[in-house]
Amino acid sequence: MIPKELAKKIRVLQITTNKVVNDILAGEYKSVFKGRGMEFEEVREYSPGDDIRTIDWNVTARTGKPYVKRYVEERELTIMFIVDMSASGEFGSVNKLKNEMAAELCALLSFSAVKNNDKVGLILFTDRVEKFIPPKKGTTHVLRVIRELLSFRPRKTNTDIAGALDYFGRIASKSAVVFLVSDFLAEDFEKPMSILGKKHDLIAATIVDPSEKSLPDVGLLELEDAETGETVIIDTGSSMVRKNYRRLGEEQSRRFRNLFSSMGVDHIEIRTDRDYVPELVKFFRIRERRY
User: Fold this and answer.
1) pLDDT at 73
2) Which end of the chain is flanked by fewer CB atoms within 10 Å, N or C?
3) Same domain for 52 and 114?
């Protein structure tokens, strides 16, 4: 039995994300994530205007009339979400935690996928893979994925992106569209990410809180690393401290952009203090023009 509070969260998320899918993303998703190619559907009699390159010469010779082969796009895709559930995701200085924003993003993309009859799968990880849901179709399955994203309580606190990517690389039998959702506060994930990106359509979705970019002027502030427990006290009343903190945040964003670009991995930054839908639409349209 699903707790009432969780069921309410799932229902609200389903209603709000479905509205966005229907009103805004209906055509964006399908045009960006295309099928794996064309598959044969039927042979039919030639009509004026048909491409002569599609003529089936064997059938034409046998019947004495020109026939053409008809193909349709092989639409079915597998959409895989690999989501970082480490302790740093349990942070948020505005209305939502980073993990809550990650869940919303995955829900929106999942409902877009199910609307196009694509499969959806999920991997939740910390410093190990803690949950794997194999890809399936259908709204019921997507609601299960969302339920896991909202209710999951990880056993560990640290982050191993490389391990999660290696795990998916071992179990994936076919090429997939993979959303790696994380704040990327980890090390040594570059090589496995580059390897996975060569076989799959890999997209890095970075979840960022505004306080990771800049600090308010509130005097002495104690910051704690959620994953290691280490603390540090900084003086936010110092304009130099705030300036250096902002510079480090900008450098990190730039490093991520350059890193993902060098690997040929698409990247989108999702902030907890902004509506992510316009950013997602912008990302889709840039990607569509490129491909």
Assistant:
1) 55
2) N
3) no
> Residues 153, 51: one domain?
no
3-state secondary structure the chain: CCCHHHHHHHHHHHHHHHHHHHHHHHHHHHHHCCCCEEEEEEEEECCCCCCHHHECHHHHHHHCCCEEEEEEEECCCEEEEEEECCHHHCCCCCCCCHHHHHHHHHHHHHHHHHHCCCEEEEEEECCCEEEEEEEECCHHHHHHHHHHHHHCCCCCCCCCHHHHHHHHHHHCCCCCEEEEEECCCCCCCHHHHHHHHHHCEEEEEEEECHHHCCCCCCCEEEEECCCCCCEEEEECCCHHHHHHHHHHHHHHHHHHHHHHHHCCCEEEEEECCCCHHHHHHHHHHHHHHHC
pLDDT tens-digit map of 216-262: 888 888 877 777 778 888 888 888 988 998 999 899 889 999 999 99
- Does a structural domain hold residue 11? yes
